[in-house]
Amino acid sequence: MVDLDPWHLLQGEDQVWRARHIEQVFPGWAIVPFARRTDNDDVACWTGSGVVVIDDWDLTWKNGMPIRHVQDEYATMGEWLVAAVQDFVEFEWS
Fold first, then answer.
1. What mean pLDDT comes out for the span 51-58?
2. 81: alpha, beta or left, given left = phi > 0 and alpha = psi -120 to 50?
3. Which of 15, 28, 43, 54 is a Cys-bridge partner for 10, taking CB atoms 3.0 to 4.6 Å apart?
């Protein structure tokens, strides 16, 4: 299983592009994008210990710096995967 609509796993150039974009928008935030939603702009990113879901296109600025809005946060990859499966069920059968 590679994709759980609405989540799509980022691979190859798609993942490289998204990582570069996030570094440009949020410099110094050491996160690695690995999945994106196809029905909105949410991106799931590995933090090194857990997962944050961000919208890297919805920017708010304060004092000349972008504010990092975290849509959702999961302590482990497993917690994110459970949520992604739930999204899949709701997306496919709603």
1. 89
2. alpha
3. 15
Rounded Cα distance between 40 and 50, Å, is 22
Taking the C-alpha atoms of residue 71 and residue 65, their distance in angstroms, rounded to an integer, is 19
What's the whole-number mean pLDDT along residues 28-47?
Answer: 94
Compare 64 and 78 and report the one with higher pLDDT: 78
Q: What is the CB-side half-sphere exposure of residue 44 using CA atoms within 13 A? A: 25
Asked if residues 55 and 41 have their Cβ atoms less than 8 Å apart, the reply is yes
Buried b / exposed e over 52-73, threshold 16 CB at 10 Å, is: bbbebeeeeeeeeeeeeeeeee
Token representation of residue 32 = 């690695």
pTM of the predicted structure, to 2 decimals: 0.89
- As a whole number of angstroms, the distance between CA 37 and CA 44 comes to 8
Task: Label each residue of 39-85 as H, E or C.
Answer: CCCEEEEECCCCEEEEECCCCEEECCEEECCEEEEECCHHHHHHHHH
